[in-house]
Protein 1
Amino acid sequence: MSVDIIKKAKTMNRSLEYAIPLFAFGGALIGIFFWMYNVPVDIRVPIFGCVIASCILAYLAWIRPRKDIVALTTPIYSFIFLGFPIDNFSAVVLEVLYAVSLSILLVRLKYRFGVASAPVLDKKELADPLLKSYVEKTRDVLVLTGAEPAHSAAVVFVRFAEGEFLAAARGAESAIAHLSDASAPRSLQHAFAIVKEQSERLDKSLVQPESFLVFPPEDAGMLAKVPDPKFGKPEEYDTALDNALLVLYAGAWNASETDHPHLLECQPFAQRLLAP
Amino acid sequence: MKIGNVNVKVSILAIAVFVIFTFFLLVASVYSPEVRSQLIWLIPGLFMLLIIPMALNYMSRREYAEMEPQYEAVAKTVRIKLINESMIGKPVRIEGVVERVYFQFLNRPQYLVADRSGAISVKMFTSPEEDVKVNDVVEVLGQVIRRYIAAGEPVINCISIKKIKKSKKDQ
């Protein structure tokens, strides 16, 4: 179902991309026709093609995570263009130039401002397919997490995302104290310990230590990322934190439904952590 | 130019405006006696084109210099990847390599700074204390903001940018 919605959104965005030159040049061609055959219609009527095209371009710019302010403001120019009286020949020339500009801006938007954000399917669902598949992959193990540790995992993750490193470290410390019984998933305990250690160092802006906590090999199946050995210890240190935060996110998502709204708000951060 | 402890810089744009208007004024005063009679106002007015940007630059540089120790005290050193939307408003410190420099000619430079974990835009609303070029390794101190105030991805509103290593070319 969700895949269908994403596919539909992609198809619609592609259609909208084609619609921009179609409306802009279509309007310009109609304008040229009116001008050449002296059709007694207000020359500003075909300018509506450019207005529609710029509104579509602004919409495509808006749905991207990186906003292009030039594309976003094109409707303003088109309305200025529409609002001012102008002679027929100048209007036609302007329309053609404007259509060319919109097409160039569309190409610039596509190549410099990335792809559109995935549509929000449901406010109760994870939108990012990669994150969703990671959370599902870890469900069997992390679903055993009790409601309280799962809530702690959510709190620690949210605090960390907000840059409240000391609060995250304290939260992780208290969660470790409560998780000491054997029933809690070991990977979650390791995740809390890693986040605690690194959050304390981040709070004091300390550099990476010589020795630090990492996940034991038996947790390998739970981890989202594998450190690239060519970058050595710094990479190992950073990946340990990324993995620990993602385990906390997955643990909280799988066992604490009441925290889903907070976790959804922090979803972009989890996506960033998951990205290579 | 140094005023007190503040190194004041005038943008190339302000100098260009001054030069263009000086040229216009010279030409106009040669051909028009009316303009010549108004030179007593026009010449100070012309110099205001330089003085006003300089004064603005001095005030903003002084303000930034005053804010720097406050940020220095509270900012946390983070990897670029850890900067996210939930950190809007938080003071941060990052270290990285300058990959691109934009709008330096406007005295409002924007840098693309990258570390092993990612890259982020660093916006500065005044001129930096020292000239920062591509490939310089820098320490950036600033606050996380959205690119367009209420929308856009997180970027850093830079309070200070300092070279911690010379660029590869200079070495």
Protein 2
Amino acid sequence: MKIENEMKISFISKSENEGFARTAVSAFAALCDPCVEDIADIRTAVSEAVTNCIVHAYRGTQGIVEITARILTGNELYIRIKDKGCGIADVKQAMEPLYTSAPFEERAGLGFAVMESFMDRLTVRSEVGRGTVVTMRKKIGGKDE
Amino acid sequence: MSVKILEEENRTVAVLSGEIDHHSAKGIRNEIDYAVREKQPQELVLDFSDVGFMDSSGIGLVMGRYKLMQELNGKVIVRNPPAHIKKVMRLSGIDRLAAISSGEEGVCKK
């Protein structure tokens, strides 16, 4: 798959950067002419992934969240969100809808379910003590044709 | 993000505007809970008409208010969520806990 365009951002895992991150990625995604619904889906999926980094990966500490976004041939958007936080011991369990390790903070346990349903493809790779890499893909504009 | 609280008879309306995410949810939660504990209404209306963005943190917010209103034997009504917010709500099944209404039927305008 050929890379047509690419951008990278990295920022400190502060909650005020959640809005910045989803806005930056959606501005980049706008280059491949998405419809309003696509943009809303992308913003929501990125927000979920970045929130996971802040709430879980870097819980009680601060670290760097790195996002790489690419536009691939065929108008497909690729997003990779990477942290060097605590990692996830059981990825399968973490991805189960309504599972949360932080129920008392009113976390709904739906982050991965939202990413999975709003994007076409989702992969989560994680290693305890080293961090987590979430990659998502979404074909843009297919539905309007 | 801002919350405007309107007190009506037996009902508290929280008019939300802006973006609801993990960062903003805590402030919204505190304001609503303060008003609810003070007034102990039978109904809590969360008005989403002016909310431009919401991720699953908003679902946590609605679920938490549902629990709070259950303690008071009251209910939660989600009013006017825009299309993409409805999509997140449908995915979560929150529509089974809180009634989702559109329009302003039955609301006393002041």
